[in-house]
Amino acid sequence: MNYSTLKKSVALSLVALTGVASLAVAQDAPATTSATKVFGGRGQYRTWSIGVHGGVLMPVVAIGGTNDFNKWDANLGYGLNIRKQLGHSFGLELNGTRGKLSGTNEGITNPAVREFETELQYAVDLRGVVNLGSIDFLRRENSVGFFLTAGAGYMAYAPKIITGAGQTIDWKGKAVGPADDKHDAKDYVKGFYIPVGAGVKFKVSERVNFNLGYTMNFVDADNLDGVYAKGQTKDKFSYGYAGLEFSLGSSAKPSLEWTNPLATMYDELKDPTLRQEVEALKNRVSAVEKSVEDLKKDTDGDGVADQFDKCPGTPAGTAVDGSGCPLPKVAPVDSVASNVTGFEKIAFDFNSSVLKTESYPTLDKLSSVLRENGGKVTVNGYASSEGTAAYNLKLSKDRANSVKTYLVNSGVNASQVATKGNGEANPIASNDTEEGRIQNRRVETARN
């Protein structure tokens, strides 16, 4: 193929591709906006695509290096690709290319090989595709993107050379098989190659991309051009192409490769449903705060919240009990010593140091005596025999401290109350029965 014919072929290919793209734009309906979520997974996107491409095959690469021929030809190549997008910035692509490569040793006197032409039956590779700029802080949507590719592949090719003496050597002729079977697999040399490339893609529509790319292919052999020239060198070829890529899947889903995750996150944060949930949460918090304030409200200032005050409106300075009612006037110490300050018992539930409500009246009377008449008391805590001795000792101390805390909170000076934990010691009933154990779970208060 001469250069003018090649230009015509490439031009016609590009015109055809542009025509297909225009038709796709005209027929492709806009994709329905999908309520995609940042962590919603790939299932909410279109991730498969298929493409066609055509361009120029050359037995050289852009980065240079040694070549077996000093003049290379540009020949038409074409192929297909299938891609699976695994994320916003990365996908896997299966790519196949066909065409031919050729070159000459022009201007060399008596060359061993004057020219070559290699039929590329196929070059199939699996490559990773990295999309650059998929995460864009400046734009919500992009219509132009750059990409890099690299992978590994397997190819089949058949070189044909013409020596300096004019002899034609066709590698297919060296194959074992029917001489008239042009496509016999044994006629082609097989080998591996590494494709490395870059390109730019244009978003023609929601379904169609127009791609321009360049791939350098490094062959694991030195016979791509039919010549073993350097021994340890490897042959290479390049492919510059234009192509169309068609996104597959439901039109209700956006394409993953063109979706900006930052825009998705922004939309998710601005979701009116989420804002409504936040407002509702704020209202619930305000209601809880108001309820807490109501619980703390103490109109008469007697130290008992209105919520629990059974005697609202108590005059200022009046001593009240735990329910907010005035305490009865206490007789002189001598007259009450026998019934409230001599020897008091406070009962507790099993494995508990929490005061029972029925203990409040007794403690309130004791508190009143201590506040009005002074003096000191010793609070002795006890436990029944269940559990270890060490645990019961701690529990008895906790019970004694619960009584002291109540007295101090009611206005008694802490120095007036001493506590002591006695554990299982000094039972007042048998620990062999539940009735006896109930009596042993106690605190005894005695004036000093």
TrEMBL record:
It is found in: Cell outer membrane. GO terms for cellular component: cell outer membrane; pore complex. The keyword Ion transport applies. GO terms for molecular function: calcium ion binding; porin activity. Residues 335-448 form the OmpA-like domain. Residues 1-26 form the signal peptide. GO terms for biological process: monoatomic ion transport. It comes from the Bacteria. Keywords: Cell outer membrane, Ion transport, Membrane, Porin, Signal, Transmembrane, Transmembrane beta strand, Transport. It holds the Pfam family OmpA. CDD domains: OmpA_C-like. InterPro entries: Bact_OuterMem_StrucFunc, OMP/PagP_B-barrel, OMP_bac, OmpA-like, OmpA-like_sf, TSP_type-3_rpt. It is a multi-pass membrane protein. PROSITE patterns: OMPA_2. SUPFAM superfamilies: OmpA-like, OMPA-like, TSP type-3 repeat. This is OmpA family protein. It comes from Pedobacter psychrodurus. The lineage of its organism: Bacteria, Pseudomonadati, Bacteroidota, Sphingobacteriia, Sphingobacteriales.
